[in-house]
Design a protein that fits this description.
The protein has 191 residues and is of the alpha+beta class. It folds into 2 domains: 80 residues, OB fold (Dihydrolipoamide Acetyltransferase, E2P) (Beta Barrel), CATH 2.40.50.320; 67 residues, Copper binding periplasmic protein CusF (OB fold (Dihydrolipoamide Acetyltransferase, E2P)), CATH 2.40.50. 17% of the residues lie in helices and 42% in strands. It has 3 helices and 11 strands. A 5-stranded mixed barrel has the order 1-2-3-6-5. A 5-stranded mixed beta barrel has the order 7-8-9-11-10. The radius of gyration is 23 Å and the shape is globular.
Amino acid sequence: MSEWYRCPAFVSVSVVGSLLLAPQTARAQARPAPTSETIPPALEGAVDQTYAEGSAILVKTADGLKHLFHFTSRTVVHDATGADEAFNGLTKGTRVVVHYAVDGTEKTAVEVDRIGDDGLRELHGVVIRVDRDARRLSVRLADGSEETLELSDRAAQDTGKDVTGAANVIVYYTDRDGHKVAHYFREVSVP
């Protein structure tokens, strides 16, 4: 065996070099996409700014806080057919619900739902029943009528976990040919 392999200076340089390069290599690796086992949290707010060059949006919540969400090629924007359309539909003031994954301090948008005429509709009421196994949400409306909506996969698994019976809720849903599907719901206070 050659003498330079046993040289303490060579070992020190090798170890220090490896430690300096390791963070760069880790940063260059792609992040794994969230799976159904790691359903992301959601945040509701309005688009404050879009960064098409950086593939990100800044969303301002009702409490005034701003959150930066990065987009990936796997980010889904409700009713958008491509990445360009996704950003074109998200202009300042657009109301959204962002489902996201967190990696350290960085938030990556997994799904973005637009709220309003060109996106999800709103329904206000009182929860009668949440049946996650059957993927159903039943709500009593202000006029006393009842509405039962199907829960999307994400809503059935993740959203509204803190909602209990008789809670006042806002439900964001799609209406396709009279078939209502809830994508997101949360408890709200009554004024």
